[in-house]
Amino acid sequence: MSTSPAIQITGLTKSYGDLPVLRGVDLDVTAGSILALLGSNGAGKTTLVKILSTLLRADGGTATVQGFDVASQPAQVRESISLTGQFTAVDEVLTGRENLALIARLRHLPRPGAIADQLLARFSLTDAAGRRVATYSGGMRRRIDIAMSLIGNPPVVFLDEPTTGLDPQARNEVWDAVRELADTGTTVLLTTQHLEEAEQLADRIAILHEGRIIANGSLAELKRLLPPAKVEYVEKQPTLEEVFLSIVGDPARATATATATAGARQDRNPDDTAATVGADE
Amino acid sequence: MIKRTIGDTAALSGRSLQHVLRSPDTIITTAITPIAMLLLFVYVFGGAIDSGDENYVNYLLPGILLITVASGIAYTAFRLFTDVSGGIFERFQSMPIARPAVLWSHVLTSLVANFVSLVLVVAVALLMGFRTGAGLPAWLGVLAIMLLFTLAMTWLAVIPGLTAKSVDGVSGFSYPLIFLPFVSSAFVPTDNMPAPVQWFAENQPVTPIVNTVRSLFAQEPVGSDLWVALGWCVGLLLVAYALAMRTYRRRLA
C-alpha cells in the first residue's frame, strides 16, 4: 500500500453567502483505509464530500485525491473517484441492469452488459435485473446505487450517509458491501451521523464540528480522550433491533450485532450522537 | 476527446430517449394541445375568421407547429429537473464524462421528441384537409427552420430545468411561449389589429417564422421574412445557450 495519503485536505474553507460552512478543514485519509467522518446535520459533511468529488468549488485551502488537485485537475480526480450521494442517484425509469450498463458505458469500459450482470449477482439483484428501479425497495435501491459506484473499481469511494433511511437488514447489507470494498484496497471516506456505523466500519474516525475537524484518530485513540472506563453492572436487555432481526430470521446477524452494539449502548439516539461527542470533547 | 464527447453524448441520449419511449404519453400530451387548438379553430372559430385563404387549415398549421414546440419543451425542462433533483445529475457530474454530454443529451432528446410530436400534428392536419404542393426543398426548409426554432427553445428550457425548485416552476415557464402565437399572424392576419397590438405582433419572432413556413408550404417567395425569422431563431439560440451555460457553471460555485 502506498504511504502517501489517498486524500489530503489542508485548510479547506467554504461559505454559502455569509454563512461559513467549512472553516479550515485539515484531514488526511490513508490509502486503502476507511475513514468515517462524523458530524451532526449541517456540520458540513456533505459540503466537504461535494468539494472532494468536484461538484463544488472551495473558497480557500487545497484538497488532493490520489495526488490530483480537485480545483486544477478535476478530470483526473473524477477518473479516480466515485460518489454515492446522500440520496440514491439511480435512474428510476431504467431497469437495474440498464442502470449498471449505462454507468459502465460512461466509464468507457468494454462489455458493459457483462459488468452489469456480474454486479447484479454480487449484490443479489439478479432476480430484479429486468425490473424498473422505481419498483425496488429502499434497500435494493441503495444496493444498486452502491453497485453503480463500484463500476470501474475507482481507488477512492465517497459514501455520503449511505445507510440513512434504511431498515436494519438493508443497513447490514450496505455495511457488508463497504467492508468488501475495504478488503480490495479501496480508500473509503464515509460520512455518518451514527456512531455505531463508524465503530463497525472505520479504521479511523474524524469528527467535523462547526466547520473544523475537532478530533481524529482510531476508535481506541478517541476512547482515550474520555476518562477511564468505570465498571458497572447493567442488566443486558435485547435491543429492539436484535429482537426484530431474530424474529424476521437473520439469526447470525442478530448475534453479531448484539455483540457489536453491547459497547455502544449509550448511543442509541442517532440525533444526539454528535452532540454528545461534541459535549464530551 | 471529440470521440469521447460523442460516445458519452450517445450513451446519455440513449438513456434519455428510453425515458421518452417508456412514457409515450409525454409525446401524446405534447401533441394533444395543439391538435385540440387546430380542431377548435378550424371547426368552431374558423368560419368567422377571414384569413384570406380559402383553406383555413393551411393558414393555421404553421402557428400550430410553433405551439407544439412550445408545449414540447416543457417536458425537456421537466426531464432535466428530474435528473437534477433526483441526484443522478450529480452522479454524472462526479464521473469522468465529457462535460458537454450531460446537457447535450437532453437537448438532442428534445429535438427527437419534438420532431415526433410535429409529425403527429402534421398527420392530423392532413386528415383535416391540409394540402400543400411543396416539394422536397420546401419541406426541408420547413424542417430546418422548425429544428432551429426547437433548438433555441430547448436551450431556453434548460434554464428552468437547472434552476427550478419545484415541478410547478418547471412546467409554468412554457405558458407564455404557448400564448405568444395568439398575438401574431398565426391565427389571423395582423392587418385588422389595433395599431399597438399590430406593432407588437409584427415585431415579435412568431410572425416572421409563421409567415416563412406558410410561404414555403404555399410555394410562394419567402422574401425578407426568412431572414428576419432566421435572425430571431439564431439570436434566441445564442442568448438562451449563453444563459443556460452560465446557469450550468454557476451550480459549481
From TrEMBL, chain A:
Main subcellular location of this protein, as a coarse class: membrane
Domain of life, source organism: Bacteria
ABC transporter domain location: 7-235
Keyword ATP-binding: yes
Compartment(s) of residence: Cell membrane
Signal peptide: none
Topological relation to the membrane, as annotated: Peripheral membrane protein
Keywords: Antibiotic resistance, ATP-binding, Nucleotide-binding, Transport
Any one GO molecular function term: ATP binding
Pfam families xref list: ABC_tran
Region called Disordered, residue ranges: 258-281
Coiled coil: none
Family designation: Belongs to the ABC transporter superfamily.
Record-given protein name: ATP-binding cassette domain-containing protein
Origin species: Cellulomonas alba
Lineage: Bacteria, Bacillati, Actinomycetota, Actinomycetes, Micrococcales
Automatic annotation (TrEMBL), chain B:
PROSITE patterns listed in its UniProt record: ABC_TM2
Highest taxon in the source lineage: Bacteria
Residue span(s) of domain ABC transmembrane type-2: 25-251
Compartments where located: Cell membrane; Membrane
Primary location recorded for the protein, binned into one broad class: membrane
Membrane-spanning segments: 27-47, 59-81, 102-130, 136-158, 170-188, 226-244
Topology in the lipid bilayer: Multi-pass membrane protein
Keyword vocabulary terms for this entry: Antibiotic resistance, Cell membrane, Membrane, Transmembrane, Transmembrane helix, Transport
Pfam families: ABC2_membrane (PF01061)
Homology family: Belongs to the ABC-2 integral membrane protein family.
Record's protein name: Transport permease protein
Source organism per UniProt: Cellulomonas alba
Taxonomy of the source species: Bacteria, Bacillati, Actinomycetota, Actinomycetes, Micrococcales
